[in-house]
Amino acid sequence: MKLVKNLSQLFTVLLLIAACTTPVPADNAVIKGSVSYRERILPPPGTMLQVSLNDISLADAPSVTLAEQRISMDGRSVPVDYVLSVPKERLQAGRRYAVRAEIRAVDRSLLWTTDTVHGVDATRSTQTLAPIMLVKTGNRSHVTPGAAARPGLTGAEWQVEDLNGTGVIDNSPTRIRFSPDGKVSGNAGCNRFSGDYSTRNGTLTLGSLSATERACIAPALNAQEARFLELMQAVDRYTFDATGALILKTRDGRTITARAG
């Protein structure tokens, strides 16, 4: 009887172990990788890492989240591993998919985020992406006093202040926003524009930009808008100056200067 009782207990333990294990269905695609950031600090208590797989195929529409993993960062140092699982039928050849990651404080304010597109191959069942390196946002409410926040393309709307040394018309609404999902959009002056972008080691590649076709009332604003869109389409790298201003540069040395608004 004792042997039967022991076997019964063992069987119960095995059932509990099996119940706690969540295997990935065979018909799911799996994307693995790690997330890190350059600062040698621990995130504040209550912060959460969120990693998601997104469909970014449409340049003029919000991305669609297909899978997501949330990981508590309490007491954790980077890098942090992640695993995303999504039904294979949701990944279609010819569409664009990317993994994005962000770390948010307990009040949901953004602390770190991706500033480049981390593409996913829709035809592979299992893949391990290169490490994702997050950049610190300009949010200083959770930064230790005296620590400099590292600027990043995403997490801010950039107000254009200068077009290749010629300035801009006072109070013109020319703005740029780079989203973590690889979309760029904004106001060229009279018209909204949008498109795709990717970055790597300071380079910036913009896809073909599309814009609405509203006529500018002021001829000067119309000319400025055309100059801005032409410069944007030629941009191939970016940097930040000592004041935190974003400098977009073309191959022939022309610049767009913008500041987080």
In words, what does this structure look like?
The chain is mainly beta and 261 residues long. The chain contains two helices and 18 strands. It has helices spanning 2-20, 219-234, and strands at 28-37, 48-55, 64-72, 80-87, 97-104, 110-113, 118-120, 126-128, 132-136, 157-163, 175-178, 183-187, 192-200, 203-206, 210-211, 235-240, 246-250, 255-260. It starts with a helix and ends with a strand.
| Estimated radius of gyration | 23 Å
Q: What's the N-to-C terminus distance?
A: 76 Å
Total of DSSP H or I helical runs spanning 4+ residues: 2
Given the helix and strand composition, which structural class is it?
A: mainly beta
The overall pLDDT, averaged over residues, is 82
Overall, the morphology is globular
Provide the helix percentage: 10-25%
Low-confidence stretches: 1-5, 10-22, 140-150
What is the β-strand count?
A: 18
Give the topology string: H per helix, E per strand: HEEEEEEEEEEEEEEEHEEE
Q: Describe the biggest sheet?
A: 9 strands, mixed
Beta-strand content bin: 35-45%
Would you summarize the structure shown here?
This protein is mainly β and 261 residues long. The protein has helices at residues 2-20, 219-234; strands spanning 28-37, 48-55, 64-72, 80-87, 97-104, 110-113, 118-120, 126-128, 132-136, 157-163, 175-178, 183-187, 192-200, 203-206, 210-211, 235-240, 246-250, 255-260.
